[in-house]
Amino acid sequence: MNYIEKTIKKGIKLHILNTDKFKTNLVAVFLTTKLEKETVTPNALISAILRRGTNNLKTQEEISKKLEELYGASFDCGIDKTGDNQVLKFYIQTINDDYIPQQEENMLKTSIENIFDIVFNPLTEKEGFKKEYVDQEKKNMKQRIEGRVDNKARYALDRCIEEMYKDKPYGLYKFGDVNSLENIDENNLYKTYKKLIDECKIDIFISGNINNEVEDIIKENENIKKLKERDAKYNTTSEKPEDKKGEVTEKMSVTQGKLVMGLDLNIQNEDEKYYTLVYNNILGGSANSKIFQNVREKASLAYSAGSSYFKYKNNIFINCGIEISNYEKAVELIKAQIEDMKNNNFTNEELENAKNSIIATIKIIDDEQDTLIIYYFGQELSNNKITIEDYIKKIEEIKREDILNIANKVEITTIYFLRD
């Protein structure tokens, strides 16, 4: 696999992942902007509106028909919260030209043209988006935001983050809030879209067996030609929670309590992020971890138990599904595992198992085109470029003292409990 970066215009970058491992080409366009209360809801809505139609393909049906003509190409889009940024993501996947029996058109060129049409040439009426589409997507978004409570584990994690980062960008829900939807119409939403397109960081990723024409195809595209150069407005640094938020309890009709503990780390350099990956794996990131084995298996205090490292914020979130009556016991036992790590109470076998588990995950990054793209996009946002081979070496070289260094930086910031 060969990775190449090209600057198309200031603030607009092309990333080519040239590989013959797949029979498909995957084209992705990422629009990255700062997470802000005023724009988080309209930006989320924009992602849904753009897939509804373009000035050339005016309905979803026409878009679907066009994709079918491209040997069953697939299109998808979505919204993510990455650090203190909101990212609108668009993907189109088509069969590689080498596998088309009778090549009548350049499939890669056509797929690039179609995704640019969707992202940069949306259907408009008068001075705004199509009113019918905006009204429908507002209803859909309202249902999606209100329906977040249906997945109790995810809801509890989101709420812990909101409490931990109250009044800060990262505390915002990636789809925004219902109240903000009320003031959105087809005209002001289109103005927001235009501002977003003029100011956001734009990254174009292309994965597959790519020829040398792709850069010219993009630069000659009419939609790209219309884009302005920009000082891309996105966050390269992340705000930290200012102080401890303590314990937060929320009541809801639940049969199982959801416990989430938010941990903060004062990371000083990039190497410490690799140490934290291994630390988290030992603590709660695998079925062999201290939290899983001691809280779930031995003490039987949890139905589910684990932890995840959010590297863009340098936070670890511990998640447990527990009997409501076991709250105090579970919290104390989890705290004991954190203290064990600080006191050097973990074995060399646990350290090696954690490293091997992470390395096994790294080795399959390039098995899926979208996973590979996300890997390099993450490096683009963090401005920390490292090959998969060097990533593995970083993990292999981690020592016990590196884990102890991280263990003694861990601080419990917020404990959130969802109960009846």
Structural summary, described in words:
With 420 residues, the protein is of the alpha+beta class. It has two domains: 2-226, Metalloenzyme, LuxS/M16 peptidase-like (Cytochrome Bc1 Complex, Chain A, domain 1, 2-Layer Sandwich); 246-419, 2-Layer Sandwich (Cytochrome Bc1 Complex, Chain A, domain 1). It contains 16 helices and 13 strands. It has helices at residues 40-50, 60-69, 107-120, 131-146, 152-164, 178-181, 186-199, 214-219, 222-226, 270-283, 290-298, 327-342, 348-363, 369-382, 388-396, 400-407, and strands at residues 2-9, 12-18, 24-34, 74-82, 85-95, 124-125, 128-129, 201-208, 246-251, 257-265, 302-310, 315-322, 410-419. A six-stranded mixed beta sheet has the order 1-2-8-3-5-4, sandwiched between helices. Strands 9-13-10-12-11 form a five-stranded mixed beta sheet, sandwiched between helices. The chain has a two-stranded antiparallel sheet with strand order 6-7. Strand 6 (124-125) and strand 7 (128-129) form a beta hairpin. Helix 11 runs antiparallel to helix 12. The longest helix is centred in the first third of the chain and has 16 residues, at 131-146. The radius of gyration is 23 Å and the shape is globular. The mean pLDDT is 95.
Keywords, separated by commas or semicolons:
Cytochrome Bc1 Complex, Chain A, domain 1; alpha+beta; 2 domains; globular; 16 helices; five-stranded mixed sheet
